[in-house]
Write a structure and sequence with these properties.
By secondary structure, this protein is an alpha+beta fold. The chain has a single domain, classed as HIT family, subunit A (2-Layer Sandwich). It is built from four helices and five strands; from the N terminus they run H-E-E-E-H-H-H-E-E. A five-stranded antiparallel β-sheet has the order 1-2-3-5-4. Bound molecules: adenosine monophosphate. Adenosine monophosphate binds at residues 10, 21, 35-37, 45, 93, 99-102.
Length: 125
């Protein structure tokens, strides 16, 4: 486990069943559930069940089956909500600059309406 991984994070508690979630899909290695504060008509979070801090940690430490599983799970969520045609946005925030609030890897799957351009234009110093 990554030395910065803290088991007090909310997604670890969801995986362990300590706190509930609005589950959308569960596979061997991944769990998808509705975001509690949806930023679009469809806003699903997809997380690996094993404790990974962020995408870097997952890429360097997860095994091939977990990696395959999470990509298949993305595809399943997309099918479940019929997002192939209309499109969607997949994103993961990493670390401080990425504004990652929950310190367990999660992918946001957003859709169900036009999402506008990528992110607001930032001031570049
Ligand atoms: P991020 O800023 O990328 O770390 O996103 C964290 C996301 O987790 C936010 O969109 C929150 O609304 C969402 N979130 C926090 N707590 C819960 C919860 N208990 N159930 C579902 N989503 C949550």
């Amino acid at each position: 486990m990554h030395k910065k991984y803290n088991k007090n994070n909310i997604f670890f508690k969801i995986i362990n069943g300590e706190i509930p979630c609005d589950k959308v899909l569960e596979t061997k290695h991944s769990l998808a559930f509705k975001d509690i504060n949806p930023r679009a008509k469809i806003h699903i979070l997809l997380i690996p069940k094993n404790p990974y801090l962020n995408l870097n940690d997952f890429i360097s430490s997860a095994d091939k089956l977990e990696k395959l599983d999470i990509f298949n799970a993305i595809s399943e969520v997309v099918s479940l909500y019929n997002l192939e045609e209309s499109g969607y946005r997949l994103l993961t925030n990493v670390g401080k600059d990425g504004h990652q609030e929950v310190q367990h890897l999660h992918f946001h799957i957003l859709g169900g309406q036009p999402l506008g351009s990528f992110i607001k234009k930032l001031e570049i110093n």
